[in-house]
């Protein structure tokens, strides 16, 4: 397995001035970091982040991509446009997109396909809501979400990254225990193994209130290959300490 992959998700936060100071603080503290790392920034800041991250060990990521290739889709951003800014990773199917923008499993699968078609690695987010966990449906939900992406992407499936983000843990301060995370990651790994001989190439990230205090124990699990970090990626010291935890 490759080194751990740590991905920050800024969500709808930032400004030109705040981004410049956050990125300069992170970049100046990267000594000793040897994991893979990326930041998914809001689209208007791609050009700023592209220039500030150029030549650094931090890759550029986007938070969403259109399921259309081009055309009359006001407000949408295509995969080819992201590629123009040297975007390396793109989140698809984040629970906030599924919840507030009605993204279905089928749409998420096409978004993953759009990203792959231009050489961008889709980070496919899956995860159950609290009521689904309480009803014992966690496995069924995440398998259904991943199955749609596997079905639509066939032999390219070893090129994706998967992020398991229990919806009840996102931005709530409630984190899955390392054992809960490992349990779901093992299910996803088995599903990938059934789909491709190269399942070991797929990094499976954990996301949901990951922070500087709990990162090490989550990352110690055998099938936790990294993290997708929201709130804590907006604080340079926290993000750097998580990158260092992933570099051990
Ligand atoms: P959080 O967000 O770390 O703030 O819980 C994670 C995410 O939504 O990607």
Report on the architecture of this protein:
The protein has 248 residues and is of the alpha/beta class. The chain has a single domain, classed as Alpha-Beta Barrel (TIM Barrel). Helix content is 41%, strand content 15%. The chain is built from ten helices and eight strands. Strands 1-2-3-4-5-6-7-8 form an eight-stranded parallel barrel, surrounded by five helices. Helix 1 runs parallel beside helix 2 and helix 7 runs parallel beside helix 8. The protein binds 2-phosphoglycolic acid.
CATH topology: TIM Barrel
Q: Can you list the ligands bound to this structure?
A: 2-phosphoglycolic acid
CATH level-4 homologous superfamily: Aldolase class I
Mean pLDDT, to the nearest integer, reads 97
The CATH class, by name, is Alpha Beta
In DSSP terms, counting alpha (H) and pi (I) runs of 4 or more, how many helices? 10
- Major sheet summary line: 8 strands, parallel, barrel
Helix content estimate: 40-55%
Shape: globular
Tell me the number of structural domains: 1
How far apart are the termini?
14 Å
Oligomer: single chain
Helix-strand blueprint:
Elements (H helix, E strand, L loop, with lengths): L4 E5 L6 H13 L7 E5 L5 H8 L4 E5 L16 H6 L4 E4 L2 H7 L3 H13 L3 E6 L3 H5 L3 H16 L7 E4 L13 H18 L8 E4 L7 H5 L6 E4 L6 H10 L3
Parallel strand pairs: 1-2, 1-8, 2-3, 3-4, 4-5, 5-6, 6-7, 7-8
Bound molecules: 2-phosphoglycolic acid.
Quick recap:
The chain contains ten helices and eight strands. It is of the alpha/beta class.
